[in-house]
Structures are given as C-alpha cells and as structure tokens.
Amino acid sequence: MNAPDPRFAPPAMPAALLAALTERFGARCSTALAVREQHGRDESIFDVPPPQAVVFAENEAEVAFVVQQAAAHQVPVIPFGAGSSLEGHLLAVRGGISLDVNRMNALVSLNAEDLTVTVQPGITRKQLNEAIKHEGLFFPIDPGADASLGGMAATRASGTNAVRYGTMRENVLGLRFVNARGEVVRTGSRAKKSSAGYDLTRLLVGSEGTLGVITELTLKLYPLPQAVSAAICFFPSIDAAVQTAMQVIQMGVPIARCELLDANAIRAVNLHDKLGLREAPMLLMEFHGTEGSVAEQAATVQELASEHGGEAFEWATTPEARTRLWAARHHAYFSALQTRPGCRSITTDTCVPISRLAESINVSVAEADAAGLPYFIVGHVGDGNFHLAYLLDPAKPEERETAERLSQQMVARALRLGGTCTGEHGIGLHKQGFLVDETGEEAVAMMRAVKAALDPQGLFNPGKVFATQP
Amino acid sequence: MNAPDPRFAPPAMPAALLAALTERFGARCSTALAVREQHGRDESIFDVPPPQAVVFAENEAEVAFVVQQAAAHQVPVIPFGAGSSLEGHLLAVRGGISLDVNRMNALVSLNAEDLTVTVQPGITRKQLNEAIKHEGLFFPIDPGADASLGGMAATRASGTNAVRYGTMRENVLGLRFVNARGEVVRTGSRAKKSSAGYDLTRLLVGSEGTLGVITELTLKLYPLPQAVSAAICFFPSIDAAVQTAMQVIQMGVPIARCELLDANAIRAVNLHDKLGLREAPMLLMEFHGTEGSVAEQAATVQELASEHGGEAFEWATTPEARTRLWAARHHAYFSALQTRPGCRSITTDTCVPISRLAESINVSVAEADAAGLPYFIVGHVGDGNFHLAYLLDPAKPEERETAERLSQQMVARALRLGGTCTGEHGIGLHKQGFLVDETGEEAVAMMRAVKAALDPQGLFNPGKVFATQP
Q1: Where do the FAD-binding PCMH-type domain residues begin and end (chains A, B) (predicted)?
Q2: A135, A193, A370, A381: which has the fewest Cβ within 10 Å?
C-alpha cells in the first residue's frame, strides 16, 4: 500500500551463487520478476522488494544444497510454503533466496494403527486429509487457509479445531530439518511421548523459518469421529455469544469447534456465499464423538445458549450442510475484503484466558465502533482467541494509523488480562514490539542467543520474530 | 553400590562463596554431611560424592542470589526438588551447590474459571491436588512418586494419566526461571495457545535443570470428572494384556489410565499391600467422563478384554476402592525392591508407537527370563511406555553388567521400532549414549549449542543430558 521501504535494500546477489543454483536446478531456479513477486507478497500489509531468486526444491538433498550454497555466500534463505501467512513471514526484508518446498508434498508413510503420519513440508492440510480419509483418520489442525504443513509448523498454527485437538505444538511428534550448516537434523520419534533431551521439535515449531528449513514432519492423527454434528445459533449481542462460549468451555464440554462471527462477518459471507444467514452475532459449533456423547454435548450447549438469548438453533448433521457452513467460515476473510474493493487489512490475533474473553472482545468492539473504521470479527472463541480485522483504504494512511493504534490498545489489554499478542499467526514483522511487551527483554534476549547459536550468520529468514541485535 | 567414581572429584568450594551464602542464608546454607548426602543420592544406580553445600531457598530473589554468586565463582548449581528422579539428575558429578526449592511450595494463584493455576516449584503433585480439589479441579500428571512440580517439569514427567491428559509438555502454560546470568525470565502466559516467538517454555520443560532454575509454573487444570470408574482384569499372558491395551487405544477409546502390571509386580504389591490379587498379568484401567460416557467406554473395553482371554473383570467405583488399587500401583517399585533385600534397580523406560508395543515387551520379557535376573514390569501401556526393572545384588557386578546389556538391547529395539529410549524419566547420567543413538550427532550438537549459548559457564547441573564437549 506504500512505496517500498528504503530500509529493505539488500546487496546484489553474488553471481557465483546464482551460477551454482542455476547449474543444479536449471529452470527450477528463477529470477523472473513475476515468480519473485509471487514469492514476495503475502497477506500482510508490508511492501517489500521481492526475493532475488526463487528455487523450487524437490527433495531434502536439494534443500541442503541451497542452504550450503547460501551459507557459503552469506545470502539469506526464506522457506516458502503456501504463502498464506499473515504477518510478513515470507517477505525478503534482506533479500536472498525464497526456497519453495511446495513440490515436496509427498505422504512419506502412514501408520494408521499408531495414528501417525510422516509427510513432506509442502503437503497442504487438504491434500493430507484427502490422502488419509480412506483409513478413517484425519488431521484436525485447520487454520482456514489451505496452508502447507511445513508452514503451519513454522508458525505454530492452530485454527478452528484447536479447542479440542490442540495446535501444531501438540500435534507434531517429530521433524527433519536442514540446519544452518546445511546438515539434516532429526528430532522426536513416532512414540507418543519422550523425555529424550531438549525439545528441539517444539523449538522449531513456531520458529518462523529462522532456525532451519523443515523437510519432513511426523504428525499425530485422529480417528474420524463416529458422529459429527454442527450447529449455528444467533445471539442478541456479541457479549451474549461470548458468554455462552465461555460457559461451554468452563463446564468442560469437549466441543470440537466453537467459532464466533459478528454481524459484519456474516454480512460478508452472505454476499459471497449466498447463505441468507441472519445478520447477527453467531456461534458456529461442532461436536465430535459417539452418537450418545454428541447428543449429550449438544443438549448442554443448547441449554446454555438459550439462557443467553440464543435463538434459531439450527443443526447441520449431513456432511454437505456442514461443509457449506465451514466453507462460509473459511471464506469470511476474503469475503470481507471484497466488501471494500481495493482494501487491505490489519488483522489482530490476541488470545486471553477464557474468563477474560468477554472483556477483551467487548472493549475492542467499542473502540472499533468509535473509530468508525470498517471491520469484522471472527474468533476461535473456545480458545479465547479472536481476530478483529480492520479493512483499510490504502490511499488513506490515517486509516492505517488508526488501525495500528487500536491494535496496540487491544494487545496491551490482552497482556494485562494474562494473554498473548498472537494466538496463532506468529510474530513475523508486525508484532516484534509486542513480543518484547509480552515476554520481557530477558526472554527475547534468550531467543536471540538461541538464534545466534544455531544460525550464527543470520541466514534463515532474517529480520523476523525479533531484531537480531537488541 | 560401587566405590565413588574417581571421575567425580570436584575442586574445593571457594571460601568466599561459602561465606557469601552463609551470610545471606545462615542455617539455611548447610555443609553438614547428612544434609549433603540426602541431597546427593537418588533412585539411580550411581555413587557420586554429595554436593559441597545445600542452600534452602525460600523465594525467587534468593534463587537469583545463589545463581549470581555461583556464577561469579564458577561453581555448579543443581536444582533440587523432591529427589525422586531415577536417572542421576541431582547428582553433583562436578560438585557445587544443591539448590533446594522445597520450601517454595506455595500456590501463587488459582484461576478456576480459566482452568489454570500458578505455583512455586517445590509444591508436590499431592499438595497441589489437595489445594485445588475444593474447586472441583485436578492436575492429572501423576508420575507415581509425590514429585515436585518443578522437578516434573524439568524431566518432562508423565505417568499414569498421560494417555488421556498428556505429559508436562502439554500441561505447562508458562514459567518463570532464573537464567545463568541470575536474571528472572518469564515465558508463556495464561492463554491456552500462543505463537509468540520461540517456545522457551518447552525448551525448559525437559531440560533437566541444565538451562535454568524454575521458580514458578503456570499449569493447565481439568474439571474433576463427573464419573470415575476403575477396573482390573487378568490375562493369560503379558501379550494378551498388551494386545487388549493396543486395541483400546487404536479404537480411540478416551481411556484415562491404562496400566500393565506383570505377575512379578503383583506378587510384590500383594506382599506389601496385602491385596490378594491373582498373580497374573493384569491391566489396571480408569475411565473418566459423564456417567454415560464412562459406561460406554467400559463396555467397549470389557468386550475387547474378553476377546483376549481377560478374566475376573472387577470394578472399583468408590473412591476408597480406587485409592487402594492405585496406591498398590504406586507402591509397585518400592514393594518390588523389598522382595530382594538390599537390592538396587536399573529401570528401563522405552516408549514405542502403540502398534509395536507387543513386540517391544514380549522380546524384552523373553530376554530377561533367559538371563535369569529378578525383574518386574509396570507399564503405561496406553502410551506404548513400559518399565522393566531389574533387581540387582550390589555385591555382584556381573548382575549389573547383564542388566546394562539387556537394557541396551531393549533400547536398540525400541529405536528400531520408531520409539524413544526414555518416555518419561529423562536422560540424566545414564542414557547419554542412547540419546545420541536416538536422535543423531547433529541434534545433540544443536542441544550443546543451545546449552553453550544460554549457560556459557556450564553452571547449571553440569554433566547431565549430554557431555558438554562432543
């Protein structure tokens, strides 16, 4: 939305490096502007020049080769998956090579009897679920976008099913990755638990491409539930919907998904998906289990919803009806962008302890209403996590300023309430100041020390998570 | 059992350090032999001279003071909790100060409505559960011993409830700890999930005291289940019991606990607890949920057990009856030690993918039987984890050699089957070679690099997890 930031002016890429990459990869090493731009832009609000080259790796040895060559020439490497990150993770703020691993999308091995699968990093969540459904299994983590599993691990993604199944933190059993020396490192195993040494798996999960390039992931799987039932319910206010969600969680109902859409989000998906939903705050819920347990959960939730004025409780038990509802939920972001043509968005991602969720949302809504910026809310409210997205006219810098100010207020509030600045999107470029506010200089200094120890040249995705120097 | 190992001969403790500690702590800094020996011996098989001093800290500032003083004099610091670790974690292999945090056992804050609690590291799991039960909540991680929460985090402990509730890895939301500079570091928050930077929380969980001294933990809690039911069932063979457990897990039954005791373990607990149980392989199971869901789970499991020749299925629904059974399970280790007076034990801790558990156990049993050493088995078989403990006569070094050989064979087999050398006890002194076998030199080199970056003087619990130099 703005002119390229002059801070992002990398040195030219060494000719010897480009020659080595071209010799090995041929047409799979590209410097074409269109290819570079496609790898240098994401859903974030930043304008940064694209990477200087894009390499399409097809196997782990090729990843290692790229890293070794880049290390020899001190040129950055930015792992690239589906490009669906929201915080500027894939932007080449110091130039370098975008290392595209989308072609590494094989299912390496499926162990249905152990509920584990090993995959390459470029496989997307939909591809994975398609490949395993014949075994009656599924991988629950669903950030909305059809993200790559490598990228989901790198940002510690979660999404709609996290309330029951956890996030990528809980569902990655082990990894293979290429470290800054260009060596392949293995972590974890297929065992369900382990106390064997430092938890390098979880150090890589959420490291946003700054510690290594993930080349293989071993994941937990779950049996497809015997019964699945989805329901929607409309509320007189956002507060009433949130109070219902809070009580559902506090009563220990093992709900699988518990999503909030505000009236603005519903208006957008109605336009986009022709759903004809009531334009009022809505909870979209899903229950997994045996027939008996699903019925039990649903009865409890319906009663709680009624107590908060919930109306028009409507069930979707057929897969088609459920798919239609969840598709609408997943389209909310792009549907909303289309309500203000040409707009870009700043999306917040605070997550608070569940008892603080109503306060966290209600004040944020009041502030957004007072500011007069177009916005919408979708929330994984069962986790205490919601996204308030401001829709900005790129021609009006004052709108961005307002949105940034509101976002700062919201984060400061979430931290006061015992929460985090980012439930699932990561730090990237946008939240580096918030990270210091949240965890303190001492913790960030330890992160920097880990980075310096494992990537002394600052090769991997530089400029993300924290400034390399304090 | 042997003469002290001459490798463990630390330099004398600097008089200035001892003076500074004595000035600050008075009688809470002790060099009395009895106190030092009590802090220098655990359940492991190693004989190491005790630490040179023991400090009883009462708050975080005191912990920081000890670390700062120790750092200034380059003297090791070994955090000490309940002393129940099994792998030599608390042994002063390079001398130094045992930093006892047992007096830091306060419940700092309870947030029942968020299912979180913040505690000091010295609180034990029984103390914690006693302190929160009035709210209808519990903390499920149960390693058997009444361990301290700080120690449980440091070894990434798990135990009987992990099959349903996960391990310390999944149940620590955040930490405070004193780093090697003597600064207090905060990680995590009370939010259920976060993507804010590197996962320092999980880097500390399982670091065995080598990266910092934990001074506060924020934990997940769970509502006490509406219904709890425990059952025992006897099988014609260990294999039949294990096949049952495997099918229970593979069918996705949300069983809370699924423990195996072999005939040797039952013989020991019969002697110790006068239980009169049949001396045959037994599964001890527990189901949590609503009345309906517990009945459903139990029916499924009883049917599976019958198919494998399970007999004498017996229910314990009253708290008293359940407590009696679980006490027996928790006494198995010490009961078995008493069957061979004066013996010490080597306890294995492999964990494999569930489908490989029968192979893993059956071959290990055959090898132990062939070797003729007394042994017993208890297993968290729902997780693929079991402990085969050899009971050794300290006067017969050949018994230790045999046990070590069998243990090595068992670990090598577990690794071939996709498992780990330690499901929950940690690496400590005993399994450092196994760690390299399991994860490879590259991963261990990364662990060493992290250690060197965060504790450049090698101050915290030196000589554990891996040799500091390759």
Answers
A1: 47-224
A2: A370
Best of B348, B446, B450 to disrupt the A interface (most A CBs within 10 Å) is B446
* CB–CB contact B197 A427 (8 Å): yes
Extract the tokens encoding A113. 């009897």
Q: What is the pLDDT of residues A49-65, one digit of tens each?
A: 999 999 999 999 999 99
d(CA B386, CA B361): 8
Whether residue B175 sits in one domain with residue B84: no
Residues B111 and B219 occupy one common structural domain = yes
Same domain, B182 and B160: yes
Reported as a single tens digit per residue, the pLDDT across B227-263 is 999 999 999 999 999 999 999 998 888 899 999 999 9
If asked whether residues A19 and A77 sit together in one domain, one would say: yes
DSSP string, B413-459: HHHHTT-BSBSSS--TTTTHHHHHHHH-HHHHHHHHHHHHHH-TT--
Nearest CA in chain A to B162: A193
Q: What integer pLDDT is reported at residue B46 of this predicted model?
A: 80
B262 within domain boundaries: yes
Angle in degrees, CA A113, A118, A122, rounded to 5: 145
CB within 8 Å: B193 and A167:
yes
Chain A interface mutation, best of B169, B179, B184, B192, highest count of A Cβ atoms under 10 Å: B192
Task: List the single residue in B with minimal CA-CA distance to A429.
Answer: B197
A470: in domain:
no
Measured between CA atoms, the residue of chain B closest to residue A176 is: B443
Cβ proximity of A430 and A443 under 8 Å:
no
Question: Could you tell me how many CB contacts below 8 A there are between chain A and chain B?
Answer: 279
Domain boundary among A71, A102, A133: A102
- Indicate the number of domains in chain B: 4
Examine the fold and report which residue of A302, A320, A335 is the final residue of a domain before the chain moves on: A335
B352:A191 CB<8 A: yes
Higher pLDDT, B289 or A370: A370
Contact yes or no for B191/A418 (Cβ under 8 A): yes
CATH number assigned to the domain comprising residue B375: 3.30.70.2740
The three-class DSSP label of residue B284 is: strand
B354/A192 Cβ within 8 A: yes
Query: Which of B195, B213, B435 to mutate against chain A (most A CBs within 10 Å)?
Result: B195
Write out chain A residues lying below 8 Å of B250, CB-based: 113, 115
CATH of the domain at B326: 3.30.70.2190
Pair (B394, B417) in one structural domain: yes
Tell me the C-alpha distance between A293 and B291, whole Å: 11
Cβ–Cβ below 8 Å for A186 and B422: no
Chain B CB contacts of A423 below 8 Å: 191, 193-195
Q: What is the CATH number of the domain that holds B61?
A: 3.30.43.10
Question: Which chain A residues contact residue B425 at CB under 8 A?
Answer: 195
The answer to whether residue B458 is domain-embedded is: no
CATH number for the domain harbouring residue B118: 3.30.465.10
Closest chain B C-alpha to A20 CA, distance in angstroms: 26
3 state SS of B205: coil
Cβ of A196 and B438 within 8 Å? yes
Pairing state between β A375-380 and B116-119: unpaired
Q: Which residue of B195, B447, B452 is in closest CB contact with A155?
A: B195
Expressed as residue numbers, the domain containing B372 is 340-431
Complex ipTM above 0.85? yes
Nearest by CB to B191, from A169, A200, A420: name it.
A420
Q: How far is CA A60 from CA A23, A54, A241, B443, in A?
A: 18, 16, 47, 17
Distance to chain B for A443, nearest Cα, Å: 6
Q: Both A170 and A76 in a single domain?
A: no
Residues A54 and A88 in one domain: yes
Radius of gyration of chain A (CA): 22
* B312: DSSP letter: E
Q: Checking phi first, is residue B264 left (phi over 0); if not, alpha (psi -120 to 50) or beta?
A: alpha
